[in-house]
Amino acid sequence: MVKNFHCCATCVHFEAEKVNNGMVYRCIRLGYETKPAYQFSCWEPKEAVKRLMGKEQA
């Protein structure tokens, strides 16, 4: 089930910033740019994602 939610965009460390030529996505924990669909083992889901994951288990 985690695989359905596990991506950078659902992590508490994910930051999106609008810039003149588009968007910049960054991991504030690791300190480098990323993409919303990337996956890393340091993933920590946002509270809303934790709730959704809990609903799927029920």
Description:
The structure is a single chain. By secondary structure, the chain is α+β, with helices and mostly antiparallel strands. It is 26% helix and 24% strand. A three-stranded antiparallel β-sheet has the order 1-2-3, with no helix packed on it. The N and C termini lie close together (12 Å). The model has no long low-confidence stretch (mean pLDDT 91).
Task: Chart the SSEs and their pairings.
Blueprint: H1 2-5, E1 14-19, E2 22-27, E3 32-33, H2 47-57
What is this structure, in a nutshell?
With 58 residues, the chain is α+β, with helices and mostly antiparallel strands. Helices cover 26% and strands 24% of the residues.
The strand order across the widest sheet is 1-2-3
Backbone structural class: alpha+beta
Main sheet properties: 3 strands, antiparallel
What percent of residues adopt helix (DSSP H or I)?
25-40%
Distance between the termini: 12 Å
Which value, in Å, is the CA radius of gyration?
12 Å
Count all strands and give the number: 3
**What is the number of helical segments per DSSP (H or I, 4+ residues)?**
2
Shape: elongated
State the order of secondary-structure elements, H for helix, E for strand. HEEEH
